[in-house]
Amino acid sequence: MKHEEALIQTLLSGHAFVEHDAGAAEALRVRVLDRVRRESPLALKDPRRHEGYLRTVAHLESDARPDLIESVVQDILGYGPLQRFIYPDREEDRGITEVMVTGYNLVYVERHGVMEESTVRFRDEDHLCSVIQKIIMSCGRRIDESCPEQDAQLPDGSRVNAAIPPIAAKGATMTVRRFPDPLAVADLVACGALTPEAAAFLRRTVAEGLNVVVTGGMGSGKTTVLNALTDFITEAHGPAASLVVFEDVLELQPRHKNTRHFLSRPPGLDGTGGISLSDLSRKMLMRLRPNFIVLGECRGREAYDVVTAMCMGHPAMTTFHAIDAADAVLRRFPGMIVMSDEGKAEGRLAALERVATAVDVVVHCAKVTAGGKSERRVVQVAEVLSKETSDGQVPDPRTLFQFRDGRLEQVASPKVFAKKKLLF
User: What is the pLDDT of residues 62-95, one digit of tens each?
Assistant: First the structure.
């Protein structure tokens, strides 16, 4: 046990690999793989389950430095130096939500909301590119000079974005977004991200079948909040209520029992077989008899499909990037609606009218700095009423809860529950 701990500490010490080390590591990796293929080929199909055996073989095949042996074992397990972050065994690594590989010799991690430099290093540029290739290919995708940027998803649900030269000017780079166990609304209240009063309002919103959009910047907690809101479906409507979820990448983890989950699919290696989020939602949205619809994130023309469902009386929730509630309903959402062929034909004024009648509540999230630490908070909850203008109906956002002095305070009483809807 002490010997294994010494290996780990040596590996984590940030020892700088040199060119000789890279060659020795590759030679050891080849010998280990050859021996495993002869003795126990099944171990390579599920290396994590056979980690002890693989580690033993690596030691039997070499008397190299412990950190070099450990590096080879991590490569075989799947994710090289990032293995400890993706499948954390150490308590201090379980709070990591993002891993940012700036270069083969520079890795940052976000731990409990604080970005810090890690001691983890890749041996060289080829080592980093090899790990990227392994991750991307394991997801059925490819990354090369003709396709130098790619998104992927790891088996644990982590989201990966990788880029290689020529678009990555200073060498390969990669970001891994980890999603810990989903938080319930009670957890959000306990950590201060939400107040009991705001939670009670959102509970009633879902119970009455109103439409909710969760907005914010990148990494602001939109997905976490949306996932927590799905708990109210079970609470208000029972486990038999039909929930249908559409996503590009599997991020949401609703605990609702009657949930059907659908994912878009990128084109295969031959460039065919892709199914976009818009195509998926358009073909299946109305055939599944949903009581509630969740679209993981709107980025473009799929916004037309979800707002159409909202206007037809199907309660729905989604997320997208926006600056605040006004920006969300007056600019961002209408702008995405007109990206579709139908929305473009109808025009921006029709898009504004659809949003005015469809969207009921905006929950806006942001990162807030407190005590030198970045924390994700709900900073605004607004209702969306409808206002008549000379150009027709337009959204009229009205803030109900606003983040002030470190807390989400109620600033107005809701009127949205008496809102009259225009069905399209």
Answer: 666 676 677 777 777 678 888 888 878 777 788 8
Question: Residue 286 gets which letter from DSSP?
Answer: T
Q: What is the CA radius of gyration of the chain?
A: 25
The per-residue b/e assignment along 82-97, b for 16 or more CB within 10 angstroms, e otherwise, is: bbbbbbeeeeebeebb
What is the structure's pLDDT at 246? 93
Q: Pinpoint the residues of the chain covered by CATH 3.30.450.370.
A: 81-180
302 burial type by CB count under 10 A (0-12 exposed, 13-18 middle, 19+ buried) = buried
In this structure, CATH architecture of domain 81-180: 2-Layer Sandwich (3.30)
Q: Are the C-beta atoms of 340 and 303 separated by less than 8 Å?
A: yes
What's the CA gap between 261 and 182, in Å, rounded? 16
Helices and strands (DSSP H and E) totals, the chain: 16, 15
Positions in the chain short of pLDDT 50: 1-20
What six digits make up the tokens of 159? Answer: 């989201």
Predicted TM-score (pTM) of the model is: 0.78
